[in-house]
Amino acid sequence: MTPDDLWNRYSAIWSISDTAGRGNELSVCLADEATYCDRNGLLVGHDAISSYMAQFQASVPGGRFHISSVLHHHDRSLAQWFLTGADGSVLQMGTSFGAISDNGRLLAISGFFHPASSTATA
Predict the structure, then answer these.
(1) Residue 118: what pLDDT?
(2) Strand intervals (E) in 10-105
(3) Alpha-carbon distance 42 to 37, whole Å?
């Protein structure tokens, strides 16, 4: 899977409401010992990340992440993303850093949220 494909597939997981389906996709995209970190804290493992995604879905019904660009070299990548609401409006923009494991799955993800003033256009 190319880095672009990986980030696009990973970003789609945030919209999967079925716990089993979300778990299956996490297994494809994330290393077993994967971590996720954003301003709300650090999560370790698929179960913790899946629970966080479910909380996101409850707080942003119909929210979807979209990858606008990916930069990649060696085992590192940066993904520019934007979050849309159920009506398609842009709610947030950000950048995520990812370290990629030897088997091509995301090993560590750090999400950064851009200031509100940069959400005007995606």
Answers:
(1) 55
(2) 30-38, 41-44, 64-73, 76-84, 90-100
(3) 4
pTM: 0.91
Specify the 3-state DSSP secondary structure of 4.
Answer: helix
Which of 56, 53, 57, 83 has its CA nearest to residue 68? 83
CATH number for the region 3-119 comes to 3.10.450.50
Residue 74: count other Cβ atoms within 10 Å of its Cβ.
7
Q: Each residue of 74-100: pLDDT tens digit?
A: 999 999 999 999 999 999 999 999 999
> In this model, does residue 120 exceed pLDDT 90?
no
Domain ranges of the chain: 3-119
Which amino acid would we find at residue 78?
Answer: L
Q: Three-state SS for 96?
A: strand
CA distances from 44 to 26, 40, 50 (A): 13, 13, 10
